[in-house]
What does this fold into?
Amino acid sequence: MSSSIRITKPHEIVERALELSTTDGCVVIADEGSTANLRWAGNALTTNGVTRGRTLTVIATVDGKEGTASGVVSRSAVTADDLEPLVRAAEAAARGAGPAEDAQPLVTGTPASPDFTDAPAETSSAVFSDFAPALGEAFARAREGGRELYGFANHELVSTYVGTSTGLRLRHDQPKGTLELNAKSPDRQRSAWAGRSTRDFKDVDPTVLDAELAVRLGWAERKIDLPAGRYETLLPPTAVADLLIYQMWSAAARDAVEGRTVFSKPGGGTRLGEKLSGLPLSLRSDPNAPGLESAPFVIAHSSGDDASVFDNGLPVPATEWIADGHLNRLTTTRHSAGLTGMQLSPGFGNLILDAGGEKSLEEMVAGTERGLLLTCLWYIREVDPATLLLTGLTRDGVYLVENGQVVGEVNNFRFNESPVDLLSRASEAGRTEKTLPREWSDWFTQAAMPALRIPDFNMSSVSKGV
It folds into this structure.
């Protein structure tokens, strides 16, 4: 990374880009990021490092007789010398574009962030100061127990600066940490996975995860073949998170009104107010949720079904998407809220599901007469948007539970299920806990979910996946 990137502070880059703007409106977003990571294999560290980088996004708006057009250009490793060409490129894109369908006046009136002119927050290898020694202890325990540990720890800290020609000066620091640990038997015939989401690596202990994985490898010593079919299934919090994140990505109000999603009502309209679950489920997002804090204002680098570049800087309130089992909100921009007549509900930076349950996953296992316990899901893909039917695979351990005890590991499956339909069939929810969505962890880590009991989860075919 060139040292010249650090000559100009992020807020100065934002201010200079706004000064260079010659169009009717301008939004500048500077993302200053740093990442620290550790990787290991076979009970030994393999690599570690720290990286830093900057991305600058310029959104130019041009008013015309037919409406307002926008042009968006993003570039990485931006220096002061790169600013004018970047701003001119965004302006050229705006002048060459037709009127933007989502055009709205740029946001005004939001108080400036008091730390807008401060240096960006940065992570470093020091974030692992307590974690690394504990990892070494986990390696020693694994060797003694005949296990091999593989995995990685990654910590990212991004400071985002948003400035607009209407006077907004906002800044948000977002830490994101992920820990993934995989234990294997020496012959590679047994594998188990555990993952955690963290903001600072002070609340994760690899020795605890290793102990959990040792138990699961023990379960896997007995192999049981099961056919495809519908099974009572315990979905752990990580799997619930992956499914509900996808559900929320499909919850744009305009798409529902236009009859294109699972939230469209047959014959017209939406399913707002409809009961989705017999459990008292609450699905919500809250920028100030303890341990899951996210941006309290809209940060939109591009426009789409559930985001608009014109909404940059708009406050993001706490929102209850499902209330007492009923569909309560769909995501809207100012534009789509006006089109649909719905309440303005900007997108979400975290996701929390709660049904008032108090049982741990272990306690739910103890209350299972016969069923399957999953570890996680992966390779999730959409089959039918009208029902939000998803398909995917189980991975790193599916276990058979009989009379409250895990009796062995069964083969992996391909599943076909809709998360909306699963909510309607869920018969029990455990206690809500912070979790790492395995499938979507590259994009979304801020989640807290309970385990769910599904009486008839559809394992559509047997898979040879690991």
